Task: inverse folding
């Protein structure tokens, strides 16, 4: 099963992508983007009332929700967000304590995983050069579809050194970028709990569809 | 008789603009667009503001989006245009301005198509991203230019 | 904690400008610089509207967001086209203020909303301009 674990819809201030248009695009591009679902990771927010079940039924894609928060170690994706996690942290705070986020989100039933680690200022690599490593990190986004030249390449050293598992996401802010990078899981994911469990236990890897998309095959 | 709307499909790529803006062109735009900021006129003024050198105004990138749409979808009119300036565009650097149709709909406002738009550099880094909603010309006269 | 500021400044008009009548020479000069085309003679290209200079570019009562400001993006809803001879009026308000972090560090954003109308009170454009400060 293949999921794009990092997408932004128009709920994020810097994205212009309606969720339904993402699904129409993926339906249309299924031969080159064999993605079974997406995780919406809106910037600095959690909307407890967002409900995409109708769209899931209509288009046949899994739609899960997470969040991208901002910390003193860069940006971190949260999966398995629940009321307890949403109440524990002010998602709009751009100076969250990363260690607290990783530890507390895990304690409350979710998982917190650093994204685009190779990016200057907001990526883990730069922070690990000057600060101690975070405890409890199990995976990092090794493949980010919005990275610039050299940014994804910086991540391998971190994976080798700390034995992190790796996953991928498009970081799409526009419809036509959804699914270009994603994560392939060995087992089916049906809901947020499955996703948290899978990310914790392993059996997944990043997948890159950019060449296939370019070639249109 | 069918018009452009029937002929273009979701996934249709707009004819890309490949260009390198000169320092002079950028100055001319800034002048014509009433943008007095020194960063648009010289490297020296831009460096005083902490920039690596003269930069292209964001508005000029939006104008390039508008040109891309006008050349690729003749007779269209833009209803909505958005742009996010993710990194400074510099004169003297080759850029590609491209776009793709991501959605079509018939509405009471007419036949509309939605496009994703990008200005990227030679390495494929997305410096400016945007979207447009355009209303296509009715009738058989307009023909989309193929990339 | 989100950025702290007096939220009562949101939505209040900080600029009201009446612009000189649009001249063909202004349109020609603007369009020539990027090769933007017009739908018909006497009409301005769509993005010509961003060339209007308001009296106050930034609100005088703006919170201190940083030393250097950059254009971070725009959203433009287009209404009727601008024609030669139009006298345009613009009204600007602060629409939003927020903070985030990116490749260049901590950034504060102000979103300015400008509504442009013509002499017939027809809406020409609604422009949301995002300025980034650091």
Result:
């Amino acid at each position: 099963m293949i999921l794009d674990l990092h997408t932004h819809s128009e709920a994020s201030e810097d994205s212009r992508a309606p969720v339904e248009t993402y699904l129409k695009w993926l339906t249309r591009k299924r031969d080159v983007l064999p993605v079974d679902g997406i995780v919406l990771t809106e910037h600095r927010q959690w909307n407890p009332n967002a409900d995409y079940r109708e769209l899931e039924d209509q288009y046949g894609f899994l739609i899960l929700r997470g969040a991208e928060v901002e910390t003193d170690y860069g940006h971190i994706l949260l999966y398995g967000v629940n009321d307890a996690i949403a109440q524990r942290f002010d998602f709009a705070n751009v100076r969250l304590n990363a260690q607290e986020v990783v530890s507390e989100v895990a304690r409350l039933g979710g998982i917190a995983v650093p994204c685009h680690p190779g990016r200057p200022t907001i990526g883990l690599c730069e922070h690990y050069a000057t600060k101690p490593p975070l405890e409890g990190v199990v995976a990092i986004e090794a493949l980010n579809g919005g990275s610039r030249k050299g940014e994804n390449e910086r991540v391998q050293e971190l994976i080798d050194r700390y034995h992190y598992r790796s996953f991928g996401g498009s970081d799409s802010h526009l419809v036509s970028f959804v699914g270009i990078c994603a994560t392939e899981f060995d087992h089916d994911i049906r809901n947020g709990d499955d996703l948290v469990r899978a990310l914790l236990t392993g059996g997944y890897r990043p997948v890159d569809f950019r060449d296939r998309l370019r070639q249109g095959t | 008789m069918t018009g452009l709307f029937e002929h273009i499909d979701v996934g249709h790529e707009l004819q890309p603009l490949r260009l390198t803006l000169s320092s002079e062109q950028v100055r001319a735009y800034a002048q014509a667009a009433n943008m007095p900021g020194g960063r648009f006129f010289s490297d020296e003024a831009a460096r005083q503001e902490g920039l690596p050198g003269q930069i292209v105004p964001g508005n000029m990138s939006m104008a390039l989006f508008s040109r891309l749409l006008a050349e690729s979808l003749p007779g269209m009119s833009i209803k909505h245009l958005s742009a996010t300036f993710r990194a400074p565009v510099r004169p003297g650097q080759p850029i590609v301005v491209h776009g793709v149709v991501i959605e079509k709909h018939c509405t009471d406002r007419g036949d509309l198509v939605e496009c994703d738009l990008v200005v990227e550099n030679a390495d494929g880094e997305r410096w400016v991203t945007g979207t447009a909603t355009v209303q296509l010309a009715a009738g058989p006269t307009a023909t989309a230019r193929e990339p | 904690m989100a950025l702290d500021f007096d939220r009562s400044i949101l939505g209040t008009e900080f600029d009201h400008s009446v612009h000189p009548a649009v001249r063909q020479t202004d349109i020609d000069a603007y369009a020539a610089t990027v090769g933007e085309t017009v739908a018909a003679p006497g009409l301005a290209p769509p993005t010509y509207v961003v060339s209007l200079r308001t009296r106050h570019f930034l609100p005088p009562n703006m919170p201190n967001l940083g030393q250097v400001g950059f254009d971070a993006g725009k959203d433009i809803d287009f209404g009727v086209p601008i024609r030669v001879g139009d006298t345009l009026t613009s009204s600007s308000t602060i629409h939003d203020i927020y903070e985030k972090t990116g490749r260049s560090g901590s950034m504060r954003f102000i979103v300015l909303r400008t509504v442009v109308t013509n002499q017939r009170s027809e809406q020409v454009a609604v422009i949301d301009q995002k300025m980034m400060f650091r």
